[in-house]
Amino acid sequence: MTTAVIAMAFLLWTGLIVGSFLNVCMYRLPRHESVAWPGSHCTSCNRALRWYENVPVLSWAVLRGRCRTCRSPISVRYPTVEIVTGALFVGGYFAFGLTPLLPVRLLFACAMIVLFAIDLEHQILPNEITLSGIVIGFAVSVFLPPGWRSALLGLLVGGLFPFVIAEVYWRLRGREGMGMGDVKMLAMVGAFLGWPLVWLTLILACLLGIVIGGGALLVSKRGFGTRLPFGTFIAVAALVCAYAEGTVLRIYEQAIHAYLAWAGIAS
Ligand SMILES: [Zn+2]
């Protein structure tokens, strides 16, 4: 009991601080700035932030979302990312327990949070994350679940299957339906989560894309030529598959059984 409380408090605090760093990554990676130097500064007046302006969530709340000197608004995205990261760190305790897999899955969750935000805002998925993610994901899978065979299969399915779809789409429509960034991101998901979770991530991401993306496009009336931030949907789908592996696999198996039963009756 006490161990659980201490572990959760530690994970929450670590998650909030890591979330604060993820904010820096989201802002600087697409701008090709170093994430390590210089320290945090106001993006409007460029003033370096003091330590007490850098406390996750609290500083934003106390300053009421404005810079202390230039009074320009600080996006609600900053505390949101910190809270989401903190929640995923605590959630990791329940999903993976205090096992060697926990830090690996938390690292994966951090990468998904950053890719989610960068793809949503800039429609790019930086190679710094996706390519190094493929290498790191596969390397740790040699020692930890899902194991190297599953990770290799996941990497190939994640990287090749969408590539084939993208190629077909390109030939049929003459434009990019799925970018190479999405393909690399799915290969990374495969390297970390293995087969069949990467396949389920792809299915779930497509469903999210159709429902949420389709709805958003209808509302904004921009037509279907607009490129959807597919990486944003992959990130959500991959997090669901990583954190609720058992449930997702059970639903998938039940769906297949239901389909087979239906097909058996129908034919
Ligand atoms: Zn300022």
Mean pLDDT: 92
Q: How does the helix and strand content classify structurally? A: mainly alpha
Overall radius of gyration: 20 Å
**Oligomeric composition of the shown chains:** single chain
Order of helices and strands: HHHHHHHHHH
Which key terms come to mind for this protein?
10 helices; 267 residues; mainly alpha; binds zinc ion; 2 domains
Description:
With 267 residues, this protein is mainly α. It has two domains: 1-97, no CATH class; 99-267, no CATH class. Helices cover 71% and strands 0% of the residues. It has helices spanning 2-28, 58-62, 77-96, 101-122, 127-141, 148-173, 180-193, 197-220, 230-243, 245-266.
Task: List the topology elements.
Elements: H1 2-28, H2 58-62, H3 77-96, H4 101-122, H5 127-141, H6 148-173, H7 180-193, H8 197-220, H9 230-243, H10 245-266
Helix pairs in contact: 1-3, 1-4, 3-4, 4-5, 4-9, 5-6, 5-7, 6-7, 6-8, 7-8, 7-9, 8-9
Bound molecules: zinc ion (ZN).
Residues 42, 44-45, 47, 67, 69-70, 72 line the site of zinc ion (ZN).
